[in-house]
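quick one: N-carbamoyl-L-aspartate bound model?
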Amino acid sequence: MGVRDLISIRDLGKKDIESFLSEASRMEKLLTKPKHLLSGKIIASMFFEASTRTNMSFQTAAKRLGGKLLTFYPSISSAAKGESLADTIRMMDGYVDAIVLRHPYEGAARFAADLAEHPVINAGDGGNQHPTQTLIDLYTIKKLKGKIQGLKVTLMGDLKHARAMRSLLYGLSMFGAEVALASPPSLAMDQDIISEVKSKFGAEPVQSQKAELKDCDVLYVCRIQKERFPDQYEAEKMQRDFRVDLELLSHADESMAILHPLPKVDEIPPEVDSDPRAKYFEQAKNGVPVRMAVLNKCINGR
Ligand code: NCD
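yep, here:
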């Protein structure tokens, strides 16, 4: 397959995604057996925005494959003196074999990939794309439900600003899931993304303000993306009004899976964590084999 950089879920066809998922499942079976697929390789971890799971699971994945990490800290690097992203990328590209980049600007990963000779993996560019999260989500759904086609999946939360939701709507539509979009109107998914999945995949996402959980197979929640709101007061107000609690979940099937890219803030209260339907920590754990597959494919072409 032709993947070298991984910038947007749009760059992948169904076959590419299936190949990532089957490679991830192979990696999961071998997780703790020493492997040397990245031995002699150095991977730069460049996070210009906060991260726990994406950064830590990429680092774990690289280490499990025998690779070495070079961590870039924006606040104590020359980025803090005003060095441009272009110069920083050109220079890092000369030191390492691959770059994992998270940046607040939409398009930053594509920009970096155009400059770098080595593979660039998008770990999130502003509110735009988060392709490796979508691979984890599809992997998790397939593992839990045995398929994606025909599943009823509700995406709920800040669909306007969350890159994980934008990428996921595309991935789910490609695989024929029936997607419902639940958000307050001011946080609705951009119409151009909805039009795109309609015209490309014949998807028909249903939009509503409240999640209808009857017969829902997967409820995928995300937090209010406070850092992308122009008005913090508005973000805090939205955050207070938005909760997936046990009362709401009492309307859902026993077999429904609750997923979340995490971090969760107030939208899922801690008592939901012990509900057997809550699968988000399992989902986060799947980040390691999926990112092992991503690193191996992007760096070694396998
Ligand atoms: C997400 C992100 O950074 O987009 N987190 C993640 O990578 N698991 C979701 C979020 O921050 O809400």
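The pocket of N-carbamoyl-L-aspartate is lined by residues 53-54, 124, 130, 133, 162-164, 222-223, 225, 261-262 (CB under 6 Å).
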